[in-house]
């Protein structure tokens, strides 16, 4: 906007200079025409005086009586004709001079008209130049305001980008925290599921048992592996030497007993055993009960642990 205004002002300045030059030229031409007019006017007055003098001489010649002598008459007529011819030629010269002066006067009027037009154009150009200067000043003010607005917009954009980056960082942190919470929740859900399984096994094992029996949801190994034949199970059933009592083991699947061991003296163990009924391939929820016997051979306590039976 400011660049266009400057170009416009330069154009107007050039037009103003041309108009001023034209005005000066017209003024000089008008002065020259006035000078010629004054000279022509003086010359016309001088010629008019000569015409008057010649006219007076002609009238005097015509008023002079003619001679009766033919010899005298002939010589006196010749000067009169010469004088008349000279006067006629002088009059023609004066007429032509008058025409020339009239043409110069007409040219003077044209010059005056051109000068008046040039002055009018000069006044219009000055007005346009003043308006252009006012427009340029307004454009400069608007440019200043626009620059300030642009700077404010840049600052706001930088602040918004900073806020966005901070929000992204906070979002990443929140996502990491959420992932940690989800992982913890998954672990908690797994523990809860295991606890529920243990409680369910505890409930199943407790049902129908005599008063005074003991139960536990804790075991060293909670998975019983069964071969593809559905009956050969692999699991460590051990009575440590430190127990001091005989133990027996009983495995139930879906509330049905599928294995019951003989009494194991302290220090004895079983690693494989056969199920009473074959199971199809799959995963089952079961319960392993450990029965403790006193010195008298009577069962003194029971402890039930939930297990998972996996058939290949």
What does this molecule look like?
There is one protein chain. This protein has two helices and seven strands. The chain is an alpha+beta fold and about 300 residues long. The chain folds into two domains: about 1-150, Helix Hairpins (Orthogonal Bundle), CATH 1.10.287; about 210-310, Immunoglobulin-like, CATH 2.60.40. A seven-stranded mixed β-sheet has the order 4-3-6-7-1-2-5.
List descriptors.
Helix Hairpins, 312 residues, 18% strand, 2 helices, alpha+beta, rod-shaped, Immunoglobulin-like
TL;DR of this structure?
10% of the residues are buried. Mean pLDDT is 80; it is low at 66-70, 72-77 and 204-220. The protein contains two helices and seven strands.
| Unreliable sequence segments | 66-70, 72-77, 204-220
Query: Percent of residues in helical segments?
Result: 55-70%
Largest sheet: 7 strands, mixed
Number of strand segments: 7
CATH topology of the largest domain: Helix Hairpins
Share in β-strands: 15-25%
């Amino acid at each position: 906007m400011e660049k266009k205004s400057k170009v416009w002002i330069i154009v107007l300045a050039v037009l103003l200079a041309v108009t001023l030059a034209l005005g000066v030229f017209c003024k000089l031409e008008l002065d020259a025409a006035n000078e010629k007019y004054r000279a022509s006017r003086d010359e016309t007055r001088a010629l008019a005086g000569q015409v008057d003098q010649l006219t007076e001489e002609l009238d005097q010649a015509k008023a002079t009586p003619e001679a009766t002598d033919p010899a005298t008459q002939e010589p006196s007529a010749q000067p009169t004709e010469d004088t008349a011819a000279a006067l006629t030629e002088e009059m023609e010269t004066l007429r032509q001079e008058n025409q020339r002066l009239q043409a110069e006067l007409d040219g003077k009027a044209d010059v005056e008209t051109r000068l008046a037009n040039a002055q009018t154009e000069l006044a219009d150009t000055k007005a346009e130049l003043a308006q252009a200067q006012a427009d340029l000043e307004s454009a400069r003010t608007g440019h200043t305001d626009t620059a300030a607005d642009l700077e404010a917009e840049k600052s706001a954009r930088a602040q918004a980008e900073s806020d966005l980056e901070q929000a992204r960082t906070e979002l990443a942190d929140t996502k990491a925290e959420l992932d940690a919470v989800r992982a913890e929740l998954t672990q908690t859900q797994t523990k809860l599921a295991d606890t529920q399984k243990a409680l369910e096994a505890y409930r199943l094992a407790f049902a129908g048992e005599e008063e005074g029996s003991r139960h536990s949801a804790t075991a060293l190994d909670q998975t019983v592996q069964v071969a593809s034949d559905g009956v050969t199970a692999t699991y460590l059933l051990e009575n440590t030497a430190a127990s001091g009592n005989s133990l027996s083991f009983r495995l139930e699947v879906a509330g049905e007993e599928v294995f019951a061991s003989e009494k194991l003296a302290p220090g004895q163990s079983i690693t494989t055993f056969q199920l009473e009924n074959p199971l199809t391939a799959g995963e089952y929820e079961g319960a392993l009960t450990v029965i403790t016997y006193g010195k008298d051979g009577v069962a003194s306590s029971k402890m039930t642990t939930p297990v998972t039976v996996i058939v290949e």
